[in-house]
Amino acid sequence: MSSGFTGGAPDFCNSCGIGERSVSMNNNPQGPYRQQVPGILLDPSNQIVQRRSDLSGKRSLPEFQAQHQQPQQPGIGLLLRSVKQRTYQHTSPISPLSPGEFPASITPEIPSGRYGLPLLHQLRPQPISLANNVMVPRNPNLSAATCPNFPQNRGAVQESEPESEKKIMNRLQELEKQLLDDDDDADGEGDGVSVITNSEWSEAIQSLISPNQKPISPSSSSSSTSSIASSVPICPKQSALEAASAICEGMLDAAMESLTRLIQVANARGNSEQRFAAYMASALKSRLKAAENPPPVAELYSKDHVMATQMLYEMSPCFKLGFMAANLAILETTSPELNSAANNKYHVLDFDIGQGGQYVNLVHALGALLNGKPTSLKITTLADPSNGGAADERSKVGEILSQLAERCGIALKFNVVAHKFTELSRDSLGCEDDEVLVVNLAYKLYKMPDESVTTDNLRDELLRRVKSLQPRLVTVVEQDMNANTAPFSTRVSEACAYYGALFDSLDSTVLRDSSDRVRVEECLGRKLANSVACEGRDRVERCEVFGKWRARMGMAGFQPRLMSQQIADSMRSRVNSLQLGNPGFTVKEEAGGISFGWNGRTLTVASAWR
Questions:
Q1: Tens digit of pLDDT for each residue in 67-86?
Q2: Which is more confident, 242 or 38?
Q3: Secondary structure class of 342 (helix, strand, coil)
Q4: pLDDT at position 404, please?
Q5: I need a surface site. Which of 55, 437, 443, 497 has the fewest CB within 10 A?
Q6: Half-sphere exposure (CA, 13 Å, Cβ side) for 584?
């Protein structure tokens, strides 16, 4: 009889002497695992009454009642089994459950209140102790069975079934109880037939084969998937990247769909993520529809943008600390002259002095180091004639610095030179032989077009001109972002990481409703839009990572001057005082420079060269 379970179940049932749901003994005295035990495995004709073809363990209720009306031979009724009646659409004439192992002999004197086979819970093997400490299964109901002639060499017999077979047998037993509602304590409420459906049997076998797999309904899966998709919040950065990818592939409809999702979470007055989403959405609009939403180009040279940029340098610790690191490098380079020379002369050339905030700190620090020694400081800045009234703005900055230097005991001379940088020389700058020349390139190089934009390569030309001046030190402070020669999709990814971290850092230092913060974020929005939406000469924002700045400085003939440990420690101390318990700002020593970042993302890097 096939048991319905693949993997050798028919041989298993036959070897155990179980077939056709009735009891029969194996005539082979030498089983695959054990030898015949005298006194237990006896002649089947002496142990079991004659088999009847009309007797089975699972019958319908009319057949069961008809059987009871007929006279029965003694002992036959003990083989019947009473279970609770159930009704199923698809019935199986037999129960596919088979016991894993039965005792070798079943006598008619078995006391039982239930009838039929399989009696797994009644015939459950129990270990008994025999000679040589060998444990063999024992049925507690076979108390009359004896083993007078048990061999003494049974120590080689396996003491227990493999662990996997035991687990399967235990699960089969529990499964039969659950499917048949077979409980030892339950009383027989009625005689009926219990049948296991094919679907139940297949699910039971599947659970045994793959216990960790659970059936999933397609309808429930689809409904749960849709509900999860609807509840998942929109990620602004992911939407921006999807829009950029669609734009690169020319799929404008898909790009607009991603842009629409980005606009849904955008809010220029919300949290930092919502504010960033608003400016990124505006930048992608300019990329998609430049005629309707022209990207900012001329706005980057406006007075309002320049003022907002200076506010950014003061508001963001990462930018401000970059200036401070450059000042410390300048002071560290000039310290030998401070200690030995009677008359100290310093000349600092700056290509973009802005509001002069960096030199306010430099004058204070220099005055503290001099300790009354006579010192002269010359600061020269360039005013490109193409910028119109820029020279007047720089002159105002010079007046403020001169008044501050006088209070610190420093003779300050401030010069504004109206020359293009291609016309620079020591003579045009008024350099003297006995003065120490230092060139400061703070947030200047990223706006200079390189060889990817024009054959003039103004970026390298500026570095060559600076090298020809033979300065004692050159300080470089730049943003760390791959936005120069990178393709459009990469620039969007870089902008998401860089400006996302920058907006977050501002959220930790400035109140959201601050008007100054609004101006600074609008400035960042213009820089972001120009970097993402513009190409060619119109793209002014061309930041590089520090590794590329190092390579470019090396090609121009400069050698790195490592920032000292004292500068790094001073910057860390300043960060701890600025962050007010916020551990988001970081200071790291990186390849000779010092980087400043937010939550692991580097925003600015300061370095020194000679």
A1: 655 555 444 444 444 444 55
A2: 242
A3: coil
A4: 92
A5: 497
A6: 18
∠ CA 87-93-97, rounded to 5°: 95
Q: Which residues contact 217 (CB under 8 A, 6 or more apart)?
A: none
- Give the residue with greater pLDDT, 49 vs 600: 600
Give residue 88's pLDDT: 46
Angle at 30 between CA 26 and CA 31, to 5 degrees: 65
One-letter identity of residue 261: R
Share of the chain above pLDDT 90, in %: 44
- Cβ-contact 132, 150 below 8 angstroms: no
Q: How far is the CA of 303 from the CAs of 306, 309, 354, 387, 538, in angstroms?
A: 5, 10, 11, 11, 18
Quickly count helices (H) and strands (E) in the chain: 19, 13
Alpha-carbon span 599 to 586, nearest angstrom: 7
Packed helices 252-264 and 236-248: angle between N→C axes, nearest 10 degrees = 160
DSSP sequence for 230-291: HHSPPPHHHHHHHHHHHHHTT-HHHHHHHHHHHHHT--TTS-HHHHHHHHHHHHHHHHH-TT
pLDDT at residue 340 tops 90: no
Query: How many whole angstroms separate alpha carbon 463 and alpha carbon 443?
Result: 14
pLDDT value at residue 370: 76
pLDDT for residue 244 is more than 80 = yes
C-alpha distance from residue 7 to each of 2, 4, 200, 239 (Å) = 11, 10, 19, 53
Reading phi first (left if > 0) and then psi (alpha if -120 to 50, else beta), residue 419 is in beta
Residue keyed to tokens 């047998």: 169
Give dist(CA 159, CA 428) in Å, integer. Answer: 102
3-state SS, one letter per residue, for 295-331: CCCHHHHCHHHHHHHHHHHHHCHHHHHHHHHHHHHHH
The structure tokens listed for 188 are: 């027989």
Asked if 531 and 502 touch (Cβ cutoff 8 Å), the reply is no
160: its two tokens = 């227990």
Q: How large is the average pLDDT for residues 38-60?
A: 48
Segment 553-569, tens digit of pLDDT: 999 999 999 998 999 99
pTM higher than 0.85 for the full model?
A: no
Phi, psi dihedral angles at 609 (to 5 degrees): -140, 160
Alpha-carbon dihedral of residues 361, 446, 316, 528, nearest 10 degrees? 160
Whether 523 and 300 have beta carbons less than 8 Å apart is answered as no
